Write a sequence for this structure.
């Protein structure tokens, strides 16, 4: 989903909410238009083969395992997704305000560095949660799916 809010500065007014892997099972990660670089794992192609260095596999592994026993895993996936939706929505006013404060006090480069760091932190937290879910599902169903 793309959010375009013309009443805000371009750097925080444009936000791409991206989901890696299955959008029905994956969290949305906010990438502000002022973000200058994504985490390294987002530059690794994981579409055609498994690669632990590719961000997509933090999500894909958990989602695939969840799909196999959806009745038993759905609650965990949906709870985690809701958490990141709520986090993103609730933190938007803070990010917008903090960006403006840094822009006024330190300039555009520092403000964009803040957005880049925020995106990296959000993406890292979501990736870690899905990695944790993947480990949980693998352990839970290791003997039989």
């Amino acid at each position: 989903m793309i959010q375009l809010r013309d009443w805000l500065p371009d750097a925080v007014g444009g936000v791409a909410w991206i989901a890696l892997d299955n959008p029905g099972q994956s969290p949305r990660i906010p990438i502000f238009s002022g973000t200058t670089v994504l985490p390294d794992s987002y530059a690794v192609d994981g579409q055609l083969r498994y690669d632990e260095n590719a961000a997509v596999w933090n999500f894909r592994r958990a989602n695939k395992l969840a799909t196999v026993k959806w009745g038993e895993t759905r609650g965990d996936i949906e709870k985690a997704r809701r958490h990141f939706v709520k986090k993103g929505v609730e933190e938007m006013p803070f990010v917008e305000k903090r960006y403006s404060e840094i822009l006024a006090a330190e300039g555009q480069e520092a403000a964009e560095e803040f957005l880049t760091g925020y995106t990296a932190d959000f993406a890292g937290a979501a990736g870690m949660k899905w990695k944790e879910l993947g480990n949980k599902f693998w352990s839970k169903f290791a003997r039989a799916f």
In short: The first helix runs from residue 10 to 13. The chain is about 60% helix and 10% strand. The mean pLDDT is 94. The beta strands are 2-4, 14-18, 29-32.
